[in-house]
Amino acid sequence: MKPAKKIRAKKHRGRPATGQGVQIGTRWPEATVAQIDAWASGQEDTPARSESIRRLVDIGLGKPAPALAVTSTAKASSERAREMAGNAIDKLKDNKASPDDQASRKRRLVKGPEEFQNVRRDRPNRK
Fold first, then answer.
1. Together in a domain, 54 and 82
2. Domain count for the chain
3. Where is the composition biased (Basic residues) (predicted)?
4. Is residue 46 part of a domain?
């Protein structure tokens, strides 16, 4: 008796379909592109051009602005990093020093040296 042949779907060449919507390619005047880029640079998360166009179309259609989950995620990760740094410093603390000294040393280590505090991007410049 002959062995049964398995029926398989034929594989197509190329990249598999993403299925995420219709791609629309258009040409834009340079002045309009400059306005889109200027609008994007004024946003909190500075979206890419394609995301900026999507948001502007949504605004034009009257849809509510999407929530910015990226910034809350970034804040959460920086909070987590600060907490982890504090825990690591607590393990290495000098038990002979007073609690006030320990707290000030920990604060200095978590904040960073004064020379670099104005370089950090996650903090507003204090003048």
1. no
2. 2
3. 1-15
4. yes
- Whether 93 and 106 have beta carbons less than 8 Å apart is answered as yes
- 123: in domain: no
Residue-number span of the structural domain to which 62 is assigned: 30-66
Give me the sign of the Cα torsion angle 104, 105, 106, 110. positive
Residue 8 phi, psi dihedral angles, 5° rounding:
-120, 150
Give a yes or no: residue 21 inside a domain.
Answer: no
Which residues have CB under 8 Å from 37's CB, separation 6+? Answer: 49, 52
pTM recorded for the entire structure: 0.40
